[in-house]
Amino acid sequence: MDKIIIEARINEYALKSANPNIPYTVDEIVRTAVGVQEAGAAILHFHGRTPDGGADTSVETNAEIIRRVRAETDLLVLPTLGFIANDVAAERRIDTVAALARDPATRPEIAPIDTGSANLEDWDAATRSFGQAERIYQNSTASLIHYARTLREVGVKPKMVSWSVGFTRRALALMEAGLIDAPGYMLFHLTDGRYITGHPPTVAGLEAHLAFLPQDRKIHWTVNCLGGNLLKLVPEIARRGGNFAIGIGDYPYPELGLPDNATLVREAVRLAKAEGRTPATPAEAREILL
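Given the sequence above, the corresponding structure tokens read:
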């Protein structure tokens, strides 16, 4: 079977209080990058963070991370657009990536486009109550068009992030409109626990996305799970020819004793190999995706 591409989602905006191995500083991110490549990852997805765990979407911090990661690894780099931490105006989220891309030394290979808007409330099943009930992650179609055009102009591959079937259909429409080139790279962003907006991390949740992928178009799909254990789904993903994006940024994995990212990637690789899939190297992932 084809090689499996592993994207390490190393920190997001998760806190050390959930898992002390979450990397905040540039040094911590670089050490994590070295570890996840050795474990089998080909892509590094990271969020710039302040030393106390806050969001840092500055060009300077992201550029330092990319330069140092490239000095010590061969990983493809995939920074964030900033999510709701960079939300003064949705159209401006792309600015940091565009600035990074002006310098070949810091140009990311890939950047994410979430292909729709989402409610980001917290659901507490125990108390049957909502938190953050007003929180919305807004991505108008006009913003998506702007992101796609900007990424093409600066030579960065879009990763289309889909939280639900509607997002998947809109991502395909962006490709049909000629705004995103084949081969597509699409992330099915499953959610679990207190996050209820995405499809659940079940075979049925995955199948709902896959049912809408056209068979006549080259799309490389990958899967993550915010708020839940993706390892349970890795064998199914591997059998179906998909890829996966995993890390303690999405979920702290207390059932594994709060591992670091490299340990988690190694366990996911073990499960994929049991299904006949071996991890792609960064060079192989570059050839497949770019």
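The longest strand covers residues 184-191. Try to locate this feature in the token string yourself.
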